[in-house]
């Protein structure tokens, strides 16, 4: 085994144990130990990422990536669901920042609008409405802790390993997804690298009107997927309305029934008295 | 890099100063409406010069900063501190994509009056940050651990989510006519045709105006902090600097809303026969454009402040019904109308502006009248039935 794979193995084991220690479960947990181990594992993995471009984009990437990963870990390890939701929002901001760093303006902003602006706010709303007095003990536990911790850290490690090995080998660099090269171009802001990225197929992302071209692409090449998603959403909407209408009719039946009984009770009493 | 930093410093300084003086303006207008004099004592510091009370913002700021940083014992400390920071940060970050004018001609090429000129999705960015601002309100309400604050936070999140939909429907009409998500492009399109979007899509303007007022939490939509019902709503437990941050963020939301209204619907820096339309301009034209934009924004903000003392507050079920039963259908109608116009009469805005204006105004009138006949806000919706529905 090379030193590199040893390092990845060490990082994976450390990270898995650290995450497992962090996950909420009954009784005491070694939170600080788990946090320290996870941070060391994250540092080991980060050290394997080869430089993307100049110092500025590299440091931005490292900061945003670390924020995203740490916030994601915190989102699953906190006990209070409101805190989990806030950490999840932080993770979304980090993801959006990574998208912006790659030059994908629309995707980055849409992430915030859809997830942080709509879904998560609704979730928070429900959390606060559902149990303002705190939550039940079984809500505070994580299920299948060791397995999920291992799966998560292995995923992060494998992704980093694959990407960094692709970046390191010179022969494979031509086959890179255009987004990786564009990251260099956007970060450096150098017109030469921008042209180089454009030659490599990155012009869609770097173009001034990339939102417009994205829309054109979505409604021509991916029209069927868009339509299917639209039909699904519409069905969900109809389903939601149906559920509300059903529960409302049931409740109003009960109410009218209760009302009739309430009306009848005094009269029957009166008759009985008479 | 340096250019961007200078722009950031200038924008933040200008916005914070503007917020301070808008507070004074609001107090003055409140006094004027209520037949009082308002703050008129504070002038230059350490002298007896009064200057019509223009020193008041300085005195207010110093007072707020020197107040004790008091954190009540029953709050969730981390979130209590985080909430005002997040709302202020989101409100300030919005101004990164908002143009404060057109361009400034220099030898090395024109300098744009935007902090982030190359940003392609400016409209959705503003929209996204208004979504982030919701967190400040609901977290503040929840972390305060107080029934009034909590109610304010819940009201606010429901209201903001509901009114984001008509807001986005209003924006979609603009995107259709402008063909871009850049705020610059929207202004340029209006300046080139000379037809402000308020004339092309009056229905969209009405929907957007109402939704933007609700998003900014201004009267008559200030349910989250209704003083008479909730003491102070989500910021009941806040004081000192944190309360200042909330208040500043609230005024910034109003300024952002005014910028959006002016840029999207009232032509931005354009005024007929005064500002020209191209990019090739002298510095006199550039200054006039900034002046026109600021003047329009000042008028819109003045309107917001007069509305505050003119209209009574909605009841909560009326507020929700207005969003879902009135504004949402009207926004859809506007979107369909604009889409049909763009598809079937593509050159009509340039060729026959009068016909477009009259036709769209007529259709707006028709939809408003039919909405009034349908009357979804009628007396059938009593609070008692609504409570039963919500539980």
Describe the structure.
The complex is a heterodimer of chains A (274) and B (391). Chain A is 80% helix and 0% strand. By secondary structure, chain A is mostly helical. Chain A folds into two domains: 3-166, Four Helix Bundle (Hemerythrin (Met), subunit A); 222-274. The longest helix of chain A has 51 residues, at 223-273. Chain B is mostly helical. Chain B folds into two domains: 1-66, no CATH class; 72-378, no CATH class. Chain B has 15 helices and two strands. In chain B, strands 1-2 form a two-stranded antiparallel ribbon. In chain B, helix 1 (2-33) crosses helix 2 and helix 8 (202-215) runs antiparallel to helix 12 (316-344). The longest helix of chain B is centred in the first third of the chain and has 32 residues, at 2-33. Chain B is globular, with a radius of gyration of 22 Å. The interface between A and B is medium-sized, with 31 and 33 residues.
Overview features:
heterodimer; A: mainly alpha; Four Helix Bundle (Hemerythrin (Met), subunit A); 2 domains; 10 helices; B: 391 residues; 2 strands
Characterize the overall form of chain B.
globular
**CATH C-level label of the largest domain in chain A:** Mainly Alpha
Topology-level CATH name of the largest domain in chain A: Four Helix Bundle (Hemerythrin (Met), subunit A)
Q: Which class do the helix and strand fractions of chain A yield?
A: mainly alpha
The number of domains of chain B: 2
Write down the oligomeric state.
heterodimer
Give the helix proportion of chain A (percent range): over 70%
Give the SSE string of chain B. HHHEEHHHHHHHHHHHH
> Number of DSSP strands of chain B?
2
N- to C-terminal distance of chain A:
99 Å
Task: Briefly characterize the structure.
By secondary structure, chain A is an all-alpha fold. Chain A contains 10 helices and no strands.
